[in-house]
Recover the amino acids of this structure.
């Protein structure tokens, strides 16, 4: 039976009965990262009842399930940039989504090595593939340049006999809303979170999202079956994670629980004990933990924290941050500590739902705006539609898991507010948060030129996407000139 470990007992376990480290060349385990896009905590092992996810459930039940795992950025490219370096994206200037895509490029300093390169230098075969069948190269989407030969292939078939491998597997996850599965979820059975209206279109979208969760589980099953067929399963450490939360109004791109709280599992029978862990984990901790299992020294200064072994240190909090997403300029930071989630809105004068061509074209967002315009959203559902934001938000996550009741102005929570405010202030300085200075105009303009040019090539002449995009860019510049 799985055990729930107290902090003290857990520390004794990881320091006294730790998995093997510094393994010899012949016994080093394979490491696989399964990274699923746009997905929150909606697997069966987490209580979802409308779908069955036996393969991810198996990983959770036989491995270590981390219940307090948080992404450092609730959007793809900063999240992946952080994971592949073991660093907070805002520390390494990778915090703006899809940045340095123009003629101005960012090259990471030697002090920030790439995790795949460290594995490669240690003799591992390094791969990056997509889908459960690994039949095409996997997504990278980093906000800096990488060597063209960083990855040896899309899977591990090209490795030398007996050579260990480090493999990333990218699953489309919640982006796969149109996937077809056996026994799809009936939209009529969907019970939406209270921040969303009980609307047929939104229920249908949520049902399609759950179908994508089920499909992702099927893909995990394909990976497990292949490893078993190739007699590799017992030689492999599998880590399962999502790159951020569900793509929805208060999920992806925002620092609410729905955007930053993610599933995180480490499966390695014989190397890690079956357990449920409640210590705080940042998603970048996968990096140092993987190096630990492979016996590769963890670089000095890496912000990633190994979750096993003598270098393990308990995190007392996790910080997440959202910055520019495509054309839309923003800066949000959050701290998850104790029972609380603290959020600071640096552009508090702006709407939550600033104009964003990517999100505003989604049917769900169109419907939310329609319902708001006709007065059909209740108070909880209208929160995200506000034309400005509080400078600070504070939520008791235990009592208010959907983050609907802002306690920042409640005198009974002043101590918590001040403490978390101070924690964030210190973290911004100590981590070297690069968002303290605005993104250079030249970099923004270069990235927007690439974005607009690419969309113009992709879209039909009748599509107004580019027109909306260029209008949003002009508005961002106007608001910046106004100090908003």
């Amino acid at each position: 039976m799985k055990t729930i470990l107290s902090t003290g007992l857990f520390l004794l376990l990881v320091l006294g009965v730790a998995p093997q480290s510094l393994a010899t060349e012949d016994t080093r385990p394979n490491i696989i990262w399964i990274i699923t896009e746009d997905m929150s905590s909606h697997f069966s092992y987490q209580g979802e009842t409308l779908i069955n996810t036996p393969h991810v459930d198996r990983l959770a039940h036989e491995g270590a399930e981390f219940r307090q795992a948080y992404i450092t950025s609730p959007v793809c490219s900063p999240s992946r940039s952080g994971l592949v370096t073991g660093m907070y994206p805002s520390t390494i200037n990778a915090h703006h989504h899809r940045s340095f895509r123009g003629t101005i490029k960012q090259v990471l300093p030697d002090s920030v090595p790439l995790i795949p390169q460290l594995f490669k230098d240690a003799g591992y075969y390094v791969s990056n593939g997509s889908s459960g069948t690994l039949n095409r190269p996997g997504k990278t989407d980093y906000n800096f340049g990488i060597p063209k030969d960083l990855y040896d292939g899309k899977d591990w078939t090209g490795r030398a006999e007996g050579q260990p491998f480090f493999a990333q597997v990218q699953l489309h996850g919640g982006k796969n809303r149109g996937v077809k599965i056996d026994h799809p979820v009936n939209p009529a059975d969907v019970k939406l979170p209270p921040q969303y209206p009980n609307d047929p279109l939104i229920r249908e979208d949520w049902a399609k999202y759950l179908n994508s969760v089920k499909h992702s589980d099927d893909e995990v099953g394909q990976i497990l079956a292949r490893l078993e067929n190739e007699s590799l399963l017992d030689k492999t450490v599998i880590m399962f994670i999502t790159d951020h939360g569900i793509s929805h109004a208060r999920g992806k791109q925002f620092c609410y629980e729905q955007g930053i709280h993610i599933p995180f599992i480490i499966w390695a029978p014989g190397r890690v004990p079956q357990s449920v862990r409640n210590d705080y984990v940042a998603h970048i901790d996968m990096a140092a933990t993987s190096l630990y299992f492979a016996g590769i020294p963890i670089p000095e200064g890496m912000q990633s924290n190994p979750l096993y072994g003598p270098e393990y240190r308990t995190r007392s909090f996790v910080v997440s941050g959202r910055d520019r997403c495509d054309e839309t300029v923003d800066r949000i930071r959050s701290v998850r500590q104790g029972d609380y989630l603290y959020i600071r809105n640096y552009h508090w004068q702006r709407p939550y739902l600033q104009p964003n061509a990517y999100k505003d074209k989604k049917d769900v967002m169109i419907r939310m705006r329609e319902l708001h315009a006709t007065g059909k959203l209740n108070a909880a559902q209208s929160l995200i539609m506000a034309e400005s934001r509080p400078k600070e938000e504070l939520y008791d996550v235990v009592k208010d898991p959907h983050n609907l009741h802002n306690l920042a102005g409640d005198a009974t929570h002043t101590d918590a507010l001040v403490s978390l405010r101070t924690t964030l202030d210190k973290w911004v300085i100590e981590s070297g948060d690069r968002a303290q200075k605005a993104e250079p105009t030249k970099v923004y303009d270069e990235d927007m030129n690439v974005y607009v040019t690419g969309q113009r090539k992709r879209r039909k002449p009748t599509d107004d996407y580019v027109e909306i995009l260029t209008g949003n860019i002009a508005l961002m510049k106007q608001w910046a000139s106004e100090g908003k």
User: Anything to note?
Assistant: Residues 7-315 form a domain with the Alkaline Phosphatase, subunit A fold (CATH 3.40.720.10).
